[in-house]
Please model this.
Amino acid sequence: MTLLDSVFWSAGISRDALATRSAFSKTRVNSAVAGMLEQGVLEEVGVQHSTGGRRPETLRLNRRLGVLLGVAMGATGLEVAVLTPDLEVLARHSEPADVRQGPGLVLSRVRALMRELLAQCGATPKQVISIGIGVPGPVDFDSGQLVNPPLMPEWDAFSIRDDLRADYGAPVFVDNDVNLMALGELWRMQRGLQNFLVIKVGTGIGCGIVCHGVVYRGTNGSAGDVGHICVDPSGPRCHCGNLGCVEAMAAGPAIARLATEAAQAGESALLAEMLAARGTLTLQDVAQASRAGDTAANAIVQHAGALLGQMLASVVNFFNPSHVFIGGGIARIGPLFLAAVRQSVYHRSLALSTRHLEIQYAPLGERAGLIGAGVLAMQESLRLRGSVR
Amino acid sequence: MTLLDSVFWSAGISRDALATRSAFSKTRVNSAVAGMLEQGVLEEVGVQHSTGGRRPETLRLNRRLGVLLGVAMGATGLEVAVLTPDLEVLARHSEPADVRQGPGLVLSRVRALMRELLAQCGATPKQVISIGIGVPGPVDFDSGQLVNPPLMPEWDAFSIRDDLRADYGAPVFVDNDVNLMALGELWRMQRGLQNFLVIKVGTGIGCGIVCHGVVYRGTNGSAGDVGHICVDPSGPRCHCGNLGCVEAMAAGPAIARLATEAAQAGESALLAEMLAARGTLTLQDVAQASRAGDTAANAIVQHAGALLGQMLASVVNFFNPSHVFIGGGIARIGPLFLAAVRQSVYHRSLALSTRHLEIQYAPLGERAGLIGAGVLAMQESLRLRGSVR
Model:
């Protein structure tokens, strides 16, 4: 890791702390930092509280380097943001979207949003350092192509990278959305955890894996594809063709379907009222009903949590992570869902695997995907830039 | 990785190949190698076929450095070997053993075998460089202690390392048996694969994980504990307390129990004959009957393979490895078992995860554990020795 990488990953650091973290002497760090300040790569800001003596200045990537564009595509929504090199969000927009419309329509909307947001924060296209994009499907990271994405079949073998690269003359990096959530959380913790998982439950279920302090993508970029792990051999048929996949039983659409059935069966006045008002129920409706104490909604939430926990138990036995962070639309349900997941995991996993295991909602919350896209963009730009040690 | 590490991991290498693999120039490599030859750390042997010009000498760790002791403890057997620093087995002994007898009895037998085998190959105790030991349970790698080992409860919190360290004044390294099989296969392939799994099916079921080219042990050293992944929520109760663990349904004891029931139910004359002759059936009896074409044995083998494959499908979806190697007593069954495993994995895993997935028996076969113990001993000794670059 170069000094510049260390500054980026620490989100503000003093020279002394930088020397401690790096393998270099204070003298060497001071001289390298002086050079990078002069080149305009780093800048000094504010003062940091110190244990005594003079207050060391905080170093960060120089905001005059330019801006990053971050895009988080979900199956049903789209988010675009402009971020500083140290990942402060300068402008952000999110809206419903349907990725199944295919690359043409979706990317023209992405382009329009990028232009608007850049204008909104007074940045020019030339200032774009790089672009990071998260997509809800498996990506071949080296080619930037989507590979057999089940939620977005029209995008198979499409390279978002090649399509967008010319727009800003800036490099474009594409990764799976959950990998980016994991990258975002890794950055938030300044790489403080070595082995953890981020589970996203929305339209589908996916898992980002951090192993030995690095995002792990697997041999074909499909690592973390946990949505099709079987939790009930006699369960309903999934769109993948198999029976009882956790995604077919515990993701957003399954939860909405069970809620619709409960509303229609007269099991919940609240859900029936929501269904009558909107014509259809979503995960968010169930979350709202559950938080309001609706018994039928709570039963659905607890069942989904137990199934997710059953899948997670297998994964925890195999991977023995220190933390599992849960994100995506499901997080709006609140503590009841989390309690059901925990109970199920602790019941099924080995004592040793769960001795210090923490299961919680992703601390970055709904920002995880965008922050992750920014981390990807900046990290890979620093890598392309080569080693400024 | 130091030059010395590179020589060790390549199992015989020319200076030119060493320079190619390392980040150093040929001149620097030649000079470092000359120094290590003079110090007696490396030696040159034989000649290597070259593409032309003079034939480069092959470098390897100097056998005069001493010998390694490798121990592979299984639930029902014990193996001890003396190996050269480049992992040639000089002497080896295996015998049935019951780890449940506890550390006292088992380790005194290990000590006796070590003495005998060293004498057998004319090595003195002082020549022992280090000792590598594999055990069938979770190990806290840093302390060398077993942690809650389900197959060997008497060993909980026992440190084999501390117990044996004084015997030879040599460092002792302890790891889980399947981790060592994975380490052995990694060495055999000269680190040629980045992400693969080794599954051991014997008395229990465990998994060694190689991630980013390194053995991954997890947060508490329990990574790969796949034996208690549920494959049938209404299956039989496992010794861990849960229902339908793959270990309770597809490991050696379950296979032997099903075969005994088949013999007693008159479903197989061959199994009944074996049962009458020996009073009990083992995994090896079922393997033998299956290879002889016995229908009942084949059905049991195929059922066990399908269940193992079902567990593996979850793990493959999560981890997306390039290879799964299967070892342990189960390997003696032969192609029928492997075919059942493959069919089950390809049926349940995502197309992308299995596109290039290879499932085969572990190439090192029954030697994997001992070779892995040797790799551990030598690798950790080189690490302790520090960096000779």
